[in-house]
Structures are given as C-alpha cells and as structure tokens.
UniProtKB/TrEMBL annotation:
Keywords linked to the UniProt accession: Acyltransferase, Cytoplasm, Transferase
Location of the Beta-ketoacyl-[acyl-carrier-protein] synthase III C-terminal domain: 235-321
UniProt source species: Streptomyces amritsarensis
Signal peptide positions on this chain: none
NCBIfam families: PRK09352.1
Limits of the Beta-ketoacyl-[acyl-carrier-protein] synthase III N-terminal domain: 103-182
InterPro entries: ACP_syn_III_C (IPR013747), ACP_syn_III_N (IPR013751), Thiolase-like (IPR016039)
CDD domains per record: KAS_III
Database matches in Pfam families: ACP_syn_III, ACP_syn_III_C
PANTHER family, A to Z: 3-OXOACYL-[ACYL-CARRIER-PROTEIN] SYNTHASE 3, BETA-KETOACYL-[ACYL-CARRIER-PROTEIN] SYNTHASE III
Full protein name: 3-oxoacyl-ACP synthase
Amino acid sequence: MTGMVLAGLGCWLPPTVVANTDLMNTEMDSFVRRRIGVVSRHRISQGAATVHLAAEAARLAMHAAAVNAVDTLILATTTPDRLCPAGAPEVASRLGLTGIPAFDINAGCSGFLYALQLARGLLATSAGTVLVVGAESASTMVNPADPSTAPIFGDGAGAAVVRRAEQGEDSTFGPTAWGSDGTLADAIAIPAGGSRQRVPAPGRGDADLFLHLRGPEVLRNAVRRMKSAATEAAEAAGWTLDDVDLLITHQANATISTALAAALPFPRERMPSNIHRVGNTAAASVPILLAEAAAQGLLAQGNRLLLTAFGSGLSWAATTALWPCVASLTAYQKETTP
C-alpha cells in the first residue's frame, strides 16, 4: 500500500458568529445546549458560498505545507454553489492552479475521509501531492423555521495537503474502513432540486428544498456504523482501542458523540470536540477539528489517532493516523469573494 503523508493543514471559519440566543428562546437554548451541544455557529456572509470557504482553507493548508502547487484537488461538499458545474475547478483557479485535475465528491459528512481514500489511490498512480478540502455552507440547506435542523449546522472549511511517502518514510494514514447503505437514503435528504424532483411538491411551499432528518434513525445508525468502522480500521492497523491516543469524530451532535464513546467504549476526555463553537459542519467537520487540534497543540508527534465519520447516503468511514510533525493554520475572517 502506497504511503500517504500529511504535509499541512488549514481551516477557515467565516467571521459572523450566530449564538443560540440569536435564534431561539431560553428554553430551546437550554435543550440545544444539552442534547445537541451547540452554543454558537459560524455563518457565511451575503454573496459568499462554498467555493470561497474552500479556497481560503486550501490556501492556508498549502501555506502550512510550504507548497505553491499540487497535482490534484478534491472538494468534498454537500452544499455545492450550483448543481452544475462542480466547485473544485473554481477553487483550483482561485488558488492559481488552473489546469490541474479538480473534482467534487458528495459523501455527506463522511466526505473528507472518502476524499482522503481517493487521494491515496491517486498518490499510488499519477499524483505526487493532493489537496483535499472539506467545505460546507451548511446553513443554506436548513429551513430557518425548522427547529430540528436549523440550530445544528454551521459553515466552514478544512483542508489538508497530502503527498506520496518517500521510500522508508512512515505513512501518516493507515487502513480505511468505509461503506454505505442506500436503503436509508431518505434518512438524511433534501427532497427537491435534483433530477428526481426539480421543484417542491405542490402544497409544500419551499419545504422540499431544505434538509430533512429522521433523527432517531440517524442516531442509531451513526453510532453503529462509526463504532464498526472505527473498530475495523484500528484492527487493520494492528491497534486496539487502548492504543489510540485521540478519537477524532465527525461533530454531528453531542448525543451521538456520547453514545459512540459508550458503545466502543472510549474515554470521552480523549475525544476532542468543537461542536459547541462551530456546530455540525458536515464534510468540513473532521478537517476543521483536526486543524484546530493541531494548531492548539493538542496533537504530539507520534500520537495515534482514529478518525471516523458518518453522513447522508448513508455513508460512513474511519481511518487511522500516526501523527507527524506538521503545521496547521487556522483563520476566522471575511471570505474573499471577487
């Protein structure tokens, strides 16, 4: 298996912070804090979109990796600027990389880990370096009037530059366990806007244009699938859960994280979390958490990390990482939207 080395990390959160108290009454605020874990989230400014966030995070990751070019760019997102074209080519052009292969993938909140696995395949064949970005304008896919989704999601982007390991060099990332279950496609879905249903159904207003969640079903499957994938990836790497220093999980909500910790089992104090500040940022969740943890000095060289995520599709993934000495840059300021 071709080794894949993490060369640099970056994350970008837009400057506008929306607190629970800006969206809901005191009683609802208390419920959201307790069950979902969100106190505030970042929101994109008017005129900005997913490609803007992606480009900013990607720029920081490239700076952290001390590179001014990559061979391929992969953008994982559930909230593309448009149905057509893909956003990745525009992200590449914003970075001065016009001409390189660039494409989007949509694997829901598992998208970044899916993209890392695709990057591994590219590094084994044609590419020397790959820029992997998870970016979401998740606030645009929820109905502001829907209390089951509106408080959960935030906007942001995280990015990683990965390169092919040199001979004799340790790989940062180990085995990946991933999968999907299309029989539950409607458990996390936006009904309208695609080829199956271009416009909302008669009599439903614009409800079909926004995200719908079957909460209890999502909770059960998220815990079961992330537990299975995380255990499989660790075992494939020759690790037990006792060998893992930190578990980096998709920041779906506090209830899922707590249930996963109990199911594995794994100490909750060794599961970094930022959902209280940023909300659920979907495909951007794992790289943002990883970049912030690295920038805050929570990760030491040689730490054994287990990464796992679950999202729409349904989709899930997990991989291991032996933490290298790597730079991470984070920023929280206005998007560049020329």
